[in-house]
Design brief:
Blueprint lengths: L2 H44 L20 H16 L3 H14 L3 H19 L7 E6 L6 E9 L2 H7 L6 E6 L9 E6 L4 E3 L3 H9 L23
Length: 227
């Protein structure tokens, strides 16, 4: 009879050790797997276009992972450098003029260009702030990323109601790659001090990974909107 608690204690210790090891190993293994998968994906796209005499795999007996990705980074950097001078801008402008003459391609190209310019070149606070809005009903709160102030026709139409609107993006959990774009009155948004990275961890973990928070001035109230 006295052996039962000891067996249970041993089983509990083994389980706890296993879970601890899983917590340590799983993130490392998944990170390595995702990194290698991305490298292989990039190599599969670039390597077929590399001339045989410039491909080190033509001379070596083993594959060189990441070589295609390296070539892609070098080419993109060179294109960016050329695109900043007069000749490069002329070539880019000529290529864009051709794309603008194609009905379907024109729409797709303009949309993608606007997205990349907004994400990569805009130095504003877009998607750098996190907040809470009441959704889907009063008393229930959803995590959102602050995109930008409403502009154009949307701002003109919504401002008629007397409220300054802000575009927010509300992603789902645990895969925040899709979601809802909503326009919310500025005074209905409660800003959070957590970073977008911390908010992403919170979403991906389904609420299990909560970032640490030290309230300002000893207050537990949510910070209000600040421009």
């Amino acid at each position: 009879m006295n052996d039962i608690p000891e067996r249970i204690s041993l089983a509990t210790r083994l389980r706890n050790n296993f879970l601890t090891g899983l917590i340590i190993c799983a993130p490392v293994a998944i990170t390595i797997w995702l990194t290698l998968s991305f490298i292989r994906w990039a190599d599969s796209w670039v390597k077929p276009y590399i001339p045989t005499r410039y491909n080190p795999e033509s001379y070596l007996k083993f594959a060189v992972p990441g070589f295609g990705l390296l070539i892609a980074v070098i080419i993109i950097t060179m294109i960016g450098f050329l695109g900043k001078n007069l000749i490069g801008r002329s070539i880019v402008g000529f290529g864009e003029s051709i794309l603008h003459r194609m009905p379907l391609v024109r729409t797709l190209y303009k949309s993608l260009k606007q997205i990349f310019e907004s994400v990569l070149k805009d130095q504003s606070s877009s998607f750098k702030k996190v907040g809470l809005i009441e959704f889907p009903s009063p008393g229930m709160w959803a995590l959102v990323f602050i995109a930008t102030d409403a502009k154009g026709e949307i701002a003109a139409r919504l401002n008629e109601a007397g409220a300054e609107m802000v575009a927010v993006f509300m992603p789902p959990t645990p895969v925040p790659t899709a979601g809802f774009l909503m326009f919310v009155p500025r005074d209905r948004i409660k800003l959070l001090e957590m970073t977008p990275e911390e908010a992403a961890k919170l979403l991906i973990s389904g609420g299990l990974v909560m970032p640490d928070y030290q309230p300002r001035d000893g207050s537990n109230a949510f910070p209000l909107w600040q421009p």
